[in-house]
Structure formats: C-alpha cells, structure tokens
From TrEMBL:
<comment type="function">
    <text>Acts on the D-isomers of alanine, leucine, aspartate, glutamate, aminobutyrate, norvaline and asparagine. The enzyme transfers an amino group from a substrate D-amino acid to the pyridoxal phosphate cofactor to form pyridoxamine and an alpha-keto acid in the first half-reaction.</text>
</comment>
<dbReference type="InterPro" id="IPR050571">
    <property type="entry name" value="Class-IV_PLP-Dep_Aminotrnsfr"/>
</dbReference>
<dbReference type="InterPro" id="IPR043132">
    <property type="entry name" value="BCAT-like_C"/>
</dbReference>
<comment type="subunit">
    <text>Homodimer.</text>
</comment>
<dbReference type="Pfam" id="PF01063">
    <property type="entry name" value="Aminotran_4"/>
</dbReference>
<dbReference type="InterPro" id="IPR005784">
    <property type="entry name" value="D_amino_transT"/>
</dbReference>
<dbReference type="InterPro" id="IPR018300">
    <property type="entry name" value="Aminotrans_IV_CS"/>
</dbReference>
<keyword id="KW-0663">Pyridoxal phosphate</keyword>
<keyword id="KW-0032">Aminotransferase</keyword>
<comment type="similarity">
    <text>Belongs to the class-IV pyridoxal-phosphate-dependent aminotransferase family.</text>
</comment>
<dbReference type="InterPro" id="IPR036038">
    <property type="entry name" value="Aminotransferase-like"/>
</dbReference>
<protein>
    <recommendedName>
        <fullName>D-alanine aminotransferase</fullName>
        <ecNumber>2.6.1.21</ecNumber>
    </recommendedName>
</protein>
<dbReference type="InterPro" id="IPR043131">
    <property type="entry name" value="BCAT-like_N"/>
</dbReference>
<dbReference type="InterPro" id="IPR001544">
    <property type="entry name" value="Aminotrans_IV"/>
</dbReference>
<keyword id="KW-0808">Transferase</keyword>
Length: 284
C-alpha cells in the first residue's frame, strides 16, 4: 500500500480522509513544494522547506510544526514509501472550515499532506533538447508564492501540449517571465539572462542553484529581464526546474537555434549534474 504523510503521521494513502470543507478544494487556498529525491537522497531539501514556510507566511498560513521536524517527516515518508528516484509532493492548506472567503476565525489548523512519486531523470530530453511556445502570461501578480492555485499555470502548460511543445514560455507586455512550471533563461554573447526574482516569477530552487554554480564557475549570469525579441535572437535557450533539471530549448515556435544544446547550457548541465552527484551520491 502506498504511503503518505497526513498531519504529521505516515499512513496508508487510502486512510487519508480529506474533508470537502478543506479550503484547498474551495479556494486553492494553500501552498506546496516538490522536492527531488535521487538515489534515496533529498536534493536541496532545506531550500525547499525555507520556500515552503516563506510561501505560507506570505499568505498568512501558520505551519505549526517546525521546519526540522517537518523535514524529518518527509524523510520518513520517503523511507516508508521506498522512494529511490522521484519526487516528494507536500501541500499545506489553510485548513478545514465551512466555505467562506475570509480566513476562518478563530484560525483552524493547517492541513498537511505529502506523497511520493517515482520518476526517472529525463536524460534523453536533456541531451536532445525540447520545443517551447511563447504565450501571454495571464497569471496573477503573486507568482513568487508557490500557491496550489495553479489554474493559470495549468492553462499555460496545456497550450504547450496543444502546440506540440514541452513548455510554454510566458511574457507580460513582451517581457519574458518564466515557463508554466519552469524558469526561463537565454544566453547571448556568453552572458546568461533570467528574470529577476520578484513577484512575477517563482524563484526556483534549481534557478538559485544553477546561478550559484554557474557564477562560481565564472559564467556571467545576469538576473535581468529579457524580451520576447531577445528570446528569438538568443544564442541558447533553456528552462530549469526540480523535475526537468536544466532542459535545453532547441526551438521556440518557428525559430530554431543553431548549435544545440549550446555550450553554456551544456556546461551548466554538467555543473548541476556534478552537484547532484555530490549531494546525493548519484552517478550521472
Ligand atoms: C511557475 C514555476 N516556475 C518555476 C519553477 C521551478 O522551480 P523549482 O526549481 O523550485 O522546481 C516551478 C516549479 O514547479 C514553477 O511551478
């Protein structure tokens, strides 16, 4: 039987009884994280936990359990679920209360669920690259919060699927923000550009790590927004996220990029793979 985390306890998945009055159902009122597990080791887990608490704080959800204990529970979940390669999904909703827009008063306990999913690393796509399509970013203005209200992102991903693409790269008034579930990057004249970590994007944990690794390696990485025109005139394009790692984009709509995956994308991929190997003891 598949295991899951439910408010601090590891239980069989079918033992979880989530109320229809959970605000996650009514309003998408909650926050979440997805943490990668490689060879049984959690990758960048502390950074994910930090962002989870930050997201919760930004929307006024109080997580009673402390981050260390919470992380221990996720490690226990990973063990009991026998997860070797895959992801841990964890969600914290504002809790259970009859449907009414304002926060419940008095406050109710946050409802926490977590589950695991086996997943292989997308080696073939990481080597060959993928296609993307450019679409308008129609999401709200709090994209820094990892909210479970993901309708905008779902619609954006569906547009990619319908266009035969791996990802949608979104823009607001011609300024590229991010993918539907990834951060977007271009390389021009050996400099990497990505949107600054403000309210218009989710500050990806993979984004943060690759910026750190790249800069330590001497690569010029600028957190400076770029336009859809810059995207089409770029030397290299890639997207990054927990499950896709660093994914080269070899075509955006009708535009094909020459030398692909490009050399800087490949260097960043190698640096990230080495980091995964170090942290999680994985062989790439
Ligand atoms: C909108 C959005 N941007 C960026 C990312 C990448 O973030 P991370 O690297 O933390 O997975 C995600 C991940 O789900 C996302 O949903």
């Amino acid at each position: 039987m598949e295991k899951a985390l439910w408010n601090g306890k590891i239980v069989n998945k079918d033992e979880i009884k989530i109320s229809i009055d959970d605000r996650a159902f009514h309003f998408g009122d909650g926050v979440y994280e997805v943490i990668r597990v490689y060879e049984g080791e959690l990758y960048l887990a502390e950074a994910h936990m930090k962002r989870l608490y930050q997201s919760a704080e930004k929307v006024g959800i109080r997580i009673e359990v402390n981050p260390d204990t919470f992380l221990e529970q996720l490690v226990q979940l990973k063990e009991e679920a026998n997860l070797i390669d895959g992801t841990i999904y964890v969600q914290v909703s504002r809790g259970v209360s009859p449907r009414n827009h304002p926060f419940p008063t008095p406050a109710v306990a946050a409802e926490i669920v977590g589950f695991t999913k086996g997943a292989k690393r997308p080696f073939e796509q990481m080597k060959a690259g993928v296609k993307a399509t450019v679409i308008e970013d129609t999401r709200w203005l709090h994209c820094d919060i990892k909210s479970i209200s993901l309708l905008g992102n779902v619609l954006a991903k569906q547009k990619a699927v319908e266009a035969g693409c791996f990802e949608s790269i979104q823009h607001r008034d011609g300024v590229v923000t991010e993918g539907s579930s990834t951060n977007a990057f271009i390389v021009k004249n050996n400099t990497v550009y990505t949107h600054p970590a403000d309210h218009l994007i989710l500050n990806g944990i993979t984004r943060q790590r690759l910026i750190e690794l790249g800069r330590n390696h001497g690569i010029d990485i600028q957190e400076v927004a770029f336009s859809t025109e810059d995207l089409l005139n770029a030397d290299e394009v890639f997207v990054a996220g927990t499950t896709v790692e660093i994914m080269p984009v070899i075509q955006v709509d009708d535009k094909k990029y020459g030398d692909n995956p490009g050399p800087i994308t490949q260097t960043l991929q190698r640096l990230l793979h080495e980091d995964i190997e170090k942290v999680a003891g994985v062989r790439n």
